[in-house]
Structures are given as C-alpha cells and as structure tokens.
Design brief:
The chain folds into three domains: 138 residues, no CATH class; 95 residues, Ribosomal Protein S8, Chain: A, domain 1; 79 residues, Ribosomal Protein S8, Chain: A, domain 1 (2-Layer Sandwich). The chain has eight helices and twelve strands. A four-stranded mixed sheet has the order 6-7-9-8, with helices on one face.
C-alpha cells in the first residue's frame, strides 16, 4: 500500500493554509509521555449537523469527517485507498441529524467503528492531527495504538474507533493461563492482542478502547476474587523461634519441608511459579547457629502450621 501525502478535508484547507503544515510539526508536538494526560481528541465546540437535503449527493463518511473536523478543529490524514473507501461509504440517512455537543465524539467513533475504520491521534494540542485507517487495509494499526494507563480506561469506553494499549498488573493470578482461557474474546487479529508481559504477572492489552477497558475490568475483578485465597493478598510475616533441643541448621530443613508439604497435600494454589514451572515454597527458614534459633519468612496464613512444625521438630532426642 503506498501512502499519499497528507490529505486535508476540503472544509479545512483554507484554515490549514494559515498554519505550518501538520506534517512539519515540531517533534515537541508529537504524542509522547508528556502529552499522556491530554485528551485524545479536542472536545466539540458545538453540535454536529448532517444535512441530507441534497438528494443528488448522498451523505458519506467524508461528509461526517468534514463536519466533525469543523466542530473540533481537527485535521485528518489518510492514504488514497482509505480516501476512496470514505467517499464510497454512504450513510443512507433519511433526515437531517443534529448530534448534541456532548455526544459528538462517541457518535462519530461508533459510526467509524461500525464501518471498520480506525481513528488514531497523531498530534494533540493546539493543532490536532488524526490518522484514519481501515482495518482491512493495514496490518500496522496495533503498532500505532495510543499508550494509556489502566486508570484512564473507564473514561475511554465510548472511543469505539480508537486503538489503545495498556498493561494490567495481576499479582494474584497466573497470567499465562488466564490469557489462554480468554483468547476467545479476541475477535479481530488486526486490532486486538492479549499477551503476558514477559516474566511478570501482567497482561499487555491492545485493541479498541472499549474492548480493552472491558477486558481489563474483567481481569481486575478475577484478580480481586482470587486475592483472599491467593499468595499475594495474604501478607508475609518474619518470625524468630528459639530452639531448646534441636540443632538450628537441621531443624531449618525439617520445618521448611513440613510446612511446604502440608500446603502441597492440602491442594492450595500458587505452589507453581506461573512462568518457570519451579516450585515456590510458601516459607523460607534459616538456621542461626550462633543462637540456635530459626529465622523464618512465612505467609501469614501459615503461621499456625509453622508453629506446629517447630513443636514437632524441637523435641529432646531419645537414646
């Protein structure tokens, strides 16, 4: 696909001529981390009116973008193939429509998404520039997704045509297992991904903002539900046990083995490392030969089992 030069909507050409061309904008205007808190798109200054009184000229998506650009001050860029599609996509409106100011962004994005178009903010600020892509003509859409935080997602549920990317931290669940089980939620390979983020307990999501927001919300709910019985939500305690009879170094191995075995036998979760398949003990016991004591780091819910294990081990040896 060959990309054409910047394409300006007809109603914006005169206005844009008074400014530096958008393609020559300074690097400081690009979407970087310093602009992350800016709105993805400028708010509409008024309602959006679509006039269908022209019987000889059907209303197309080009007309919608023209009106949308006028009320928001945006400039749009797209290649020749996308322009052809936009001009051919008719709305088939039966009457003039006026979209209320507060609903302009959501209405336009829903319309674009229904017709498989993607809006991606390239420049934000005083001279916003937005790219228009079609899902069936690009394999690069996911690479241009806008980075957002999980906290921003609830405010993006109406940005149906905008691709975003974020990372969700899920300390209480196995991200590889949950991402595999939720693969059926990916309906479009061009725009959606759900991948474990390396050797971490995080999932990287990319897709239309409402989809990412919905999946992230579901994952966080699962993580919260798993929390009460999960290792990450229990807490860790550090304890010291003074031994009366047993040798500290020998007792350390016995106590750790006893507690770990009790967890394994009871079938409790989180014994397997979600990424490396290694067995993680819920307890760490060090023997202090100087004072003949045990120094223990243990999950809070296993303290009583620890005490029982120490009592079993720290007994006077019989002849």
């Amino acid at each position: 696909m060959s990309f054409a030069s910047l394409t300006l909507l007809p109603t914006l050409i005169l206005a844009a001529a008074a400014h530096q061309p958008a393609v020559e904008a300074t690097p400081t205007s690009r979407v970087v981390s310093s602009t992350q808190d800016m709105p993805l798109y400028p708010p509409a200054k008024s309602g959006l009116e679509l006039n269908v009184d022209r019987a000889d000229t059907p209303t197309t998506l080009i007309d919608v973008l023209t009106a949308y650009g006028e009320v928001t001050g945006q400039t749009f860029t797209y290649d020749n193939e996308v322009e052809t599609f936009l001009r051919r996509t008719e709305l088939n409106l039966t009457r003039t429509r006026t979209i209320p100011q507060a609903e302009v962004q959501a209405w336009v994005e829903n319309l674009m998404a229904q017709n498989q178009y993607i809006l991606q903010p390239i420049l934000r600020g005083t001279e916003p520039l937005t790219s228009v892509l079609h899902q069936n003509t690009t394999h690069m859409a996911r690479l241009t997704a806008t980075p957002v935080t999980v906290e921003q997602l609830p405010g993006l549920k109406h940005n149906a045509a905008t691709l975003v990317t974020t990372t969700v931290n899920l300390p209480n669940i196995d991200v590889r297992q949950i991402s595999n089980s939720m693969r059926s939620m990916i309906l479009n390979q061009h725009t959606q991904t759900m991948l474990p983020a390396g050797a971490t307990n995080s999932i990287h999501l990319t897709g239309p903002a409402p989809w990412v927001a919905s999946v992230a919300e579901s994952l966080l709910q699962i993580n919260a539900q798993e929390g009460p019985s999960g290792e990450a939500n229990v807490g860790v305690e550090m304890l010291r046990f003074q031994l009366k009879h047993a040798d500290a170094q020998m007792a350390a191995e016995l106590v750790q083995s006893l507690v770990s075995s009790s967890v394994s036998i009871s079938g409790e979760r989180n014994m397997n490392h979600p990424h490396q398949g290694q067995v993680l003990s819920p307890i760490s016991v060090l023997g202090d030969p100087r004072t003949n004591a045990l120094l223990v780091t243990v999950r809070g819910d296993l303290v009583q089992r620890l005490k029982d294990a120490v009592a079993l081990v720290d007994v006077e040896a019989t002849e």
